[in-house]
Every structure is written in C-alpha cells, then in structure tokens.
UniProtKB/TrEMBL annotation:
It comes from the Bacteria. GO terms for molecular function: hydrolase activity. PROSITE patterns: TAT. The lineage of its organism: Bacteria, Bacillati, Actinomycetota, Actinomycetes, Glycomycetales. InterPro entries: GH (IPR017853), Glyco_hydro_30 (IPR001139), Glyco_hydro_b (IPR013780), TAT_signal (IPR006311). It comes from Glycomyces tritici. Keywords: Hydrolase, Signal. Belongs to the glycosyl hydrolase 30 family. This is Glycoside hydrolase family 30 beta sandwich domain-containing protein. Coiled coil: none annotated. Residues 1-38 form the signal peptide.
C-alpha cells in the first residue's frame, strides 16, 4: 500500500504484497459473449430506504506526495464540468506537529466547497510508543497523552477554519508493519476508557481488510460503543461475502458506517485503462449495496491510478466515482433497486425528496436495453450522463418517463447515471 514518505513506487516488497492482497478482491471479468435480450424490468423502490449517504472522496497527504494545487482542489471538491464533486477529504494526523500546517490549505478549500474533512493518524509522537515483537505500539501509560495529541490536532485545524467531522484512533491497526499496531483488545480498552474525552466524532477501528474481529469487540461493548461514532473500515482484499455486517445492523443503531480508504482494483494500472476502470464502479456498487457503507473514500486523490491524474484531469476511474459523487450528494438515501438484473450489470439507486438518481453499470461487450419502473413515479424527462471508451461524464440522450416507466440502453462497457426530478 502506498503509505511511505519516500516515493512509494520504490517500496516494491510492500507494494507487491498489497497488490496481491488487493488482487484477492478483484472481481472476475466474465467472458464477454453477447448477452441475450434483457427481459428483467429494473424496479426502483423509493419507499424502501436503506442507508443515508455521507459522501464520496479521497486522501490528501502533503508529506508523502505533493499537496493538491489550488486548481486541483477545485477539480476534486467542485461540482462543475470537469470536476469530481467529492464531498469528503481525508487528511493525516502527523506525529510531528511541525507538519500540521501543511494540510490546512486543501482542507480549507474542501470545507469552503461543502466537503466534510476527517483525519487518521499513522503514529503517535515517538515518545508515546514502545517496541514489541518487532513492531511498535502506544504505551499503555500514554493513552491520556494520546487523547490530548488528537485533541490538539482537532483544535489546531479548528483554529484554521477546518472543523473536523471526525478523527480516527489509528489507521489500519491490523496492517501495522510500518506504523503503530493495536490489538483488538487494546483498541477496545482505548475506546472504552479514553475515547470519550476526544472532542470530535471518533472513528474506529479502520481495519485494512474490514476484519470483523477488529470491530466486533467495540460493537459488543456498550461502553466502548458509546464513545465511538463511526465504524470505519478499509476494503483491501475484502471478499464480497464479507461485505455485509449483521452485527453492525443489530447493534450499530445511531452509529455511522464508513469505508475510509481503498484503491481498486490495483495501484499498478493506469486509471484510464478501459474497460478496467469499470471495476471501480462495480466495487462502489458492492460497497454501497452489500456493505451498506455511507461513504466511499479513495486513497490518494491525485495519482496515476487514482481519480485525478497527475496532470490534474479526471481519470476514467475518477469518472466512475463521479457518476456517484456528482449526483448522489450528502444526505441522499440509498433505496432498493434491482441490483443485478443480468450478468455483469449493476444497478444502484438513491433519492433526495422527489429526486431519484440511478447509477447503471454494464460490463458486457454488447449494449443492453432495460425497462425501468419507479414505484409511485409520474411523468418526467430523465437526464443522463455516460462514460464509456469514447465518452467521459458526457451528457447523453434523455428518455421520457411516463407513469413511472421508461426504457434505456446501457451501452457496451459503460457506466450511466440517470437523474429524475
């Protein structure tokens, strides 16, 4: 995983390991035979509400790679033409306070454009840690001091006009080869005994692979859970079967569920590789529908494999994210829709008031036509945008909805957003 202050591409052993881990989650590309004519009607149910969306976004880390430029901040968090429409920024809590000011400018601009900002630490200050079993951990007698460190960062950002939405206890405590490790019991103890003194929303445990043994103890301990506001997780190598979290649905009432970091399917391919970039859109669909996450947060915003290319323009992977982030805004609710009407077709739907947003992905090598029915829908013109091999977030033909029904073509290897007002 690209978490190193040196140019990350030189850390080949780490990159290869994470690439292998990530490859475990890569979704198989089925044989691209022409699909049979679709018979299934895609049913959208605005009355069947699922989770509330908090937003989509990515990471800025001005110490490990260069900060976003002023223009790139607008591309990331603006929502005009050629912009990503991101509504979440993740920043690091540097162990060295001298670096805190480096994260301010991008965070200020994100806030000004309406985004939420949250922060994750990789390490406490060095004097708070000790070595054990070849790694390092927060000293048990330093838990209160660590709370003060996190609060100091929160207050520093607030004094610079950035009110953090939340702060994490630890980035990837279970993948801590190069940063601070926490056992599930250590995390539980901190959440139970110390996290209540943190002055903003608390995020935990940020497992690198959504390992439930990291978060189950928190959910099963009312005192710890009372001090945690957001269960955060990363999805590196997480298998599809592990996306649902019944224990959270049972015990997480009033808490939020955030996917706080991933890149998918890898960090080696260009983000403009097509149709490979559709894997990103499918991964978002699965995280939202089966994982029921309220956010989807990428790793570095600007990177060769990320949503923004090094030249500051939106990549094809970024366009897949933007098909959600530009039209599914914070506060929208995911609603039930026919999620997988045929092989390699993925449907996700949302609403805000009377507005309905549908994101449709067709990974097949042939176009396919579907009838759509929106329960309780009336008559409207449906605005659409398309990304495929030849188009990127391009306005597309507008079907007419009559009595809640319309038909639409999903071009071969494409992602298309429909907005019904």
């Amino acid at each position: 995983m690209e978490h190193h202050p040196k140019p990350p591409e030189t850390a080949m052993s780490k990159l290869k390991r994470r690439s292998l881990i990530t490859a475990g989650a890569a979704l198989p590309v089925l044989a691209a035979a022409a699909p049979a004519a679709a018979q299934t009607t895609i049913l959208v149910e605005p009355g069947n509400v699922q989770q509330t969306i908090q937003g989509f976004g990515g990471m800025n880390h001005s110490v490990w790679i260069a900060d976003l430029t002023a223009a790139q901040r607008d591309t990331a968090f603006g929502n005009g033409s050629g912009q990503l429409g991101f509504s979440i920024l993740r920043i690091p809590v540097h162990e060295d306070r001298a670096n805190w000011s480096r994260e301010v400018a991008t965070a200020q601009r994100a806030i000004a454009l309406g985004a939420k900002v949250f922060a994750s630490p990789w390490n406490p200050p060095a004097h708070m840690t000790e070595s054990f079993s070849g790694g390092k951990r927060l000293r048990y007698d330093m838990y209160d001091d660590y709370v003060q460190h996190l609060n100091d960062f929160d207050q520093f950002m607030a004094s610079n006009g950035v009110d953090l939405y939340g702060i994490s206890v630890q980035n990837e405590p279970d993948y801590a080869h190069d940063w601070t490790a926490w056992t599930p019991q250590e995390m539980l103890r901190f959440c139970r005994e110390n996290a209540g003194a943190i002055g903003t929303r608390v995020i935990a445990p940020e497992s690198f692979q959504y390992r439930k043994n990291q978060s189950d103890p928190i959910l099963n301990d009312p005192q710890a859970l009372g001090n945690v506001d957001i269960i955060g997780a990363h999805l590196y190598g997480t298998q599809n079967a592990d996306l649902p979290y019944p224990l959270f649905q049972q015990k997480g009432g009033g808490k939020e569920l955030w996917m706080t970091e991933v890149y998918h399917p890898n960090s080696s391919d260009s983000a403009d590789l097509w149709p490979g970039a559709l894997d990103t859109g499918e991964h978002m669909h699965r995280a939202l529908v089966y994982g029921r996450f309220q956010t989807y947060v990428w790793w570095y915003i600007r990177r060769s494999y990320g949503p923004m290319r090094e030249d500051g323009r939106i990549s094809k992977r970024g366009a897949n994210m933007a098909h959600f982030s530009k039209w599914v805004r914070p506060g929208y609710q995911r609603i039930t829709a026919t999620a997988n009407p045929q092989a390699n077709v993925y449907i996700t739907a949302f609403k805000s008031g009377a507005r309905i947003v549908i994101v449709a992905i067709n990974k097949n090598a042939s176009s396919v036509y579907f009838p759509f029915t929106v329960q309780g829908g009336g008559n409207a013109t449906v605005a659409t945008w398309l990304t495929d091999a030849n188009n990127t977030l391009a306005a597309s033909s507008s079907p007419t909805m009559t009595n809640g029904s319309f038909g639409a073509q999903l071009p071969a290897r494409s992602i298309r957003t429909f907005v019904i007002n």
